[in-house]
Predict the 3D structure of the following.
Amino acid sequence: MKLRGSLQAGFVAMALGALVVALAAIGVMLHQQQRTRADVLALSQRSMHALAAERVVARGEAISVQLADALVNPLYYFDLDAMGSAVRNVLQQPDVVYVLIFDPSGNVIHDGSNDIDAYGRRMDDAFAAQAIAARGRHMQHDGRLLDVAMPIRMGEQRIGGVRIGYSLDSAIADESAMAASMGAHLDRIARRDLWTIGAVLLVLVAMGTAIALTLQRRLVRPVRELADAAQQIEAGNYAVVVPADGRQDEIGELVRAFDRMRDSIARHDRDIRRIAYTDPLTGLANRLALREALDMRLLEMQGASGRLALLFADVDDFKRVNDTLGHDVGDEVLIRFTARIAAAVNAQGIADALLARFGGDEFVVLLQLPEGSAQDLRRMAQTLAARLVEDVSQPIDVQGRDVFLGISIGITLFPDDAATAGMLLKNGDIAMYHAKLAGKNRFSVYSLAMDQALERRVHLEHELRGAWERGELNLVYQPVIRMDDGGLAGVEALLRWEHPELGAIAPSVFIDIAEQSGLIDVIGPLVLEAACREARHWQQTYPAARSLFVSVNVSPRQLRSGQFAAEVEAALAASGLDARHLHLELTETAVIGDEARIGELLGALRTLGVKVWLDDFGTGFSGLSHLRRVPVDGVKIDRSFVADVLRDPDDLALTTAIISMAHSIGITVVAEGVEKDGQYEVLRDRGCDLGQGFRFGHPVPARTFDGQLGAAGSPRTHGT
Ligand code: C2E
Ligand code: MG
Ligand code: MG
């Protein structure tokens, strides 16, 4: 707008300026012409005057000489008649006003009249004195009258003179008539010039207008169109066209250059959009594209009765692939995964299903049913989720090795569960999380209860931070006894959380939260060191506890941190506990999957002298054969088997098998959850090495255990 105004205003100002200058020039010219006219008129008047006067003078000269000659004799002889006829002859000539013959003293002798009234009168007019005194021809005039005097001589003697008076009136009249005609002529010329100048001015104005219009059409308009187009392009409309009209001039070149620039911007924009909206690894739509597509679809469905299902999928333990096999393998696995997911989605046969990679190992599938569709979207989503779980859990062959991975999927529906994209994604995430908590490699459908459970979990996680520092977390110790003589062999350290408002929170709950949130990385080493210090204290204080071991639970995440061996060493060094007296309890799930790496770690721990036990043995799916591959020092038979060992012959058989199998490969067997004497006796008879359970002692705080040790004085016996 500004550009438009200033360019046009500039042109108008320039045109007006030129007009003013032209008008001023014309004014000066006219003024000059006027002066010239006056000069010419004056000059010509002067020259005409001179011409007329000259004519009269010439006539006067000639006639005065003739007359003076002709009058010599008549005057000498005083022949008045002859004088009279000569004078009258002259008087008849045009412009002659008077002819006077006079004697040497200036008295009139003849004036051409019959009775010569003036005879003998002395001439006393204005010219008389000089005329009388003249010795040769003498002329004088007063503007209206020319007086030519000529002496008349007889030989050398002046006998008189003659004066001829000419009227200059006719000359003057001629002169002014000529001046008038000259003036009229000059006026005509001036008028003609005025017309010419006017015409030139008109042409100039017309040309100026034409130039202004041309500039407007050929320069201002294209520039304005370019400015408008630039605005359009700025707003993202690349379809805008500025016609070059086949022009070959600079403007045409500019317009073509502009078009090229627009095309290039559009191309770059497309490229940037493509880059911004696609995931480079898998080629799927990325998070941004998903968000926009979801927003758009929800917007389209507003008011309509269309429905949408969102599947939020997260690969289980994908981090492990990256950590153990490297990121290249991780990438490859993701690409294979993508292909499988895409194949499953395609096989489902839902038109415009959208598959996007939401994050590192997160995928989102959008399924949409149009308005009025009779299909059951929830069922469709569940079928697809089940299929994805099934397909994805098949082993993937990457670089010659089988990788087993699962996937957890959360399903949420629009408009049932949420109305906005953000809420739908959050619900999908919550449902997915729920599937993870429920054991991974499965799907779950969002419900409001999940939301509340998650809220509680998030709250607990928040509360768990700093709980150790606030003294809310404490260790309790449960004795582990030798089955044969009932003597105290060691203790298991078990973590307790006493929340100031919520009360005691079950370890199964908060350990899981600590594990999932990563807080275990902080708490784990603290537990390890505290347990080691306590055990060392008992060893040093009570003779009965001199060779007591402490058994500490280690979660899978701690094991995979890469720092674990160093943490154990640090705890031992800080407490002064002999490595032999530290037992680490690992669950089966912690050691399966990546035997090579875990085997290496366990090897390193055992080199330190630390003993490794498999906790909750029998509940996992590793089986007895697994024991051969993982170097452990003992197994703790899960209390679910021990509980039924008296009633269920199968459990007794399994327990017996575990004991003999363990002994055959030289490892210790611990029975957990021994509550009854009968259980104790059966297990002791089967050769079980160690036992733990309420029959021998409940988990108690360190001070309480201190008291028990002090009171015992000698190794406690439980069995006999
Ligand atoms: P776990 O290692 O198998 O611990 C033994 C669990 O059995 C303890 O439950 C203990 O109180 C209970 N128990 C002992 N004797 C009997 C009995 O005769 N009958 C019955 N019914 N139960 C008995 P708790 O303390 O609730 O611990 C639960 C789980 O929490 C532990 O299972 C362990 O896996 C985990 N945990 C506890 N403390 C820690 C810790 O410091 N770090 C880690 N990573 N996990 C821990
Ligand atoms: Mg344990
Ligand atoms: Mg256990």
Q: What stands out?
A: The pocket of magnesium ion (ligand 3) is lined by residues 615-616, 636, 672 (CB under 6 Å). The mean pLDDT is 89. Residues 2-70 form the longest helix (69 residues). The two ends are 104 Å apart (CA to CA).
